[in-house]
Design a protein that fits this description.
Elements (H helix, E strand, L loop, with lengths): L2 H20 L8 H51 L5 H16 L5 H27 L5 H24 L1
Helix pairs in contact: 2-3, 3-4, 4-5
Length: 164
């Protein structure tokens, strides 16, 4: 908008406001101002309602994913106990389920609890891998990978505890 247009617009607003005041009205209480505020309020409420619906949908998706991943981890454990899959498969499935659970946590304390479960999972996997190395069924690389997973989980746990 050019300077001259702004000046005309400002002058017009002053004249209209003054006319309303001279006729006994309050220039701050015009019908257009009220409609503008109501329209703005309606728009804000509509955006708020849309956001709440999106948040509800997201929570529903997160819960559905969690249920599927928990079921997958339960099956992987059963299959690992039967010797149908390795403990590595179970560990990966359980870790994926636990990491997904982090998205559902509402407090730092809940997140700390999930990270503690992850650390325990990786400690167990590390011990299992070390036993496999001792029996000649795994390598030092496998142990190092298990240790790295455990260390990453411990680092994440410590960072979360420092936030609290």
């Amino acid at each position: 908008m050019s300077r001259s247009s702004k000046a005309v617009f400002t002058a017009l607003a002053v004249v209209v406001g003054s006319a309303g005041f001279l006729l006994g009205g309050d220039p701050n209480d015009s019908r257009l101002a009220k409609e503008g505020k109501q329209s703005e309020s309606s728009a804000v409420q509509a955006r708020k309602k849309a956001r709440q619906e999106q948040e509800r949908q997201l929570h529903k998706l997160l819960l559905e994913r969690q249920q599927i991943l928990d079921k997958m981890a339960d099956h992987a454990l059963k299959f690992a106990e039967e010797g149908r899959v390795s403990m590595v498969v179970y560990t990966k499935a359980k870790a994926t389920a636990l990491r997904a659970r982090l998205d559902l946590c509402e407090t730092s304390a809940e997140r700390v609890n999930v990270f503690k479960q992850l650390v325990k999972l990786y400690m167990d996997a590390e011990a299992w891998t070390e036993r496999r190395v001792a029996s000649g069924r795994a390598t030092a690389v496998d142990v190092d990978m298990a240790k790295a997973d455990r260390l990453n989980a411990q680092i994440e746990l410590t960072k979360e505890e420092l936030k609290a």
